[in-house]
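As the work plan foresaw, the team has encoded backbone shapes as discrete tokens. One protein thus recorded appears below exactly as we store it.

:::
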Amino acid sequence: MITLEPGAVPLEQWRAIYRGAGARLNTTCRAVVQCGADTIARIAARDQAVYGVNTGFGLLASIRIAPADLDTLQRNLVVSHAAGVGEAMPRPVLRLMLALKLASLARGASGVRPETLDLLEAMLARDLLPVVPAQGSVGASGDLAPLAHMAAAMIGVGEIDTPRGRFPAEQALRAAGLAPVRLGPKEGLALLNGTQFSCGYALAGLFEAEALFAAALAAGALSTEAAKGSDTPFDPRIHELRGHRGQIEVAAMLRAMMHESPLRASHREDDKRVQDPYCLRCQPQVMGAALDLLRQAGATLATEANSVSDNPLVFADTDEVLSGGNFHAEPVAFAADMIAMALCEIGSLSERRLAMLVDPALSGLPAFLTPRPGLNSGFMIPQVTAAALVSENKQRAYPASVDSIPTSANQEDHVSMAAHGARRLMAMADNAGHVIAIELLAAAQGYDLHAPLRSSDAIHAVHDEVRAVVAHLEDDRYFHPDIAAATRIVRSGRLHDIATVHGIAVPAVAHG
């Protein structure tokens, strides 16, 4: 169980929540939440126009709302904004979104009451997850549509996915011993304004990229050995002269993976290749740059995840409500674009190593890694599949943040597009995972062809991990199950663990 300290939740805890850990608030935050709610109550009682408390929204902000209609104003805001379309959010990302919203509101600057937070916390604890369509946010003025679907479930509208199935929201709440909340002044706006949808998807993409990054390094080391590549390009002196942290760390891991490899030693003196292809030789430069980019994205998202991103904001110490633009998700959009570029390049380099392995002119191995080419096609079409996935990721990697479209009658005239920029990352991670899996199979096949020579203990353990679930390819067989099995290895984190067990430091993508 994760205890959330609002404003100070590390990436490790967001990752744990995404992977299934429970979450609750530190109870010490209730006092500051109550102060914010009391401030809103005092302001609502005054004869003063305050946006989101007693006015309309967006271009309708100049319209005053009578005190008797303030509850209705908040309810109407929620149901009118629950206009999302498309498939429902996946449960892991949805749980993360709820936890992000919970921690943001608990900082006390949003003006919600403690009992409203209690309901959100209870829903998360009981695995009562609102059904939230994933399309409809432009990443500015908050992730309005998806967060409105979350808020709608809290007032008993829409549907909730429970451990027992999907039910109407009010029915699901009451079956769990909970009651829908009646929203007070500003509470509806606080719930549906913010970047938690975009940030949740971006964090999910970052966490998926972590496992893929470690797996790609392990697959790259195995491919280098299968191709009888050189470890000279991983010499630390080369990388220290350039100075990029990620490059230095990637080179160190690859060097450690190949350390004392009998297979490498067997051809060290009579290697006829002066230089390996870039896909082998430049792994530290490419993967190191991707690592640095992912770390930068992680730092941005760590800040955003702990932020207050709704509007207007409550300052209890001065009894003020100030309107600003913290809902604009430009930082998340940039971070998502960085993750997308990194995922694209990780998959692209992996596919190039795979293409090198199946080409006898480059690898020195049998064509398409089959002992009897012609009768058998071997890895011919798996490489085509990998090429298709890489091209698909290239198309998806176009920066979302450079796009904008005016909304709300031009009141909201510049938007971030963070929502779909972050949402695409899951599909991109899936594609990259399949590419790395196919490379892993090909690398294990190429490695087999050097028997009885073997590599270092670490690389041999990577090979054995593959062979535990996928047999050596002697003659053509139905390939799909092999790729599926290898993909499970890639996504599981096992290759990271293998390196760690052998005393090899795997560069950390997201920490702190």
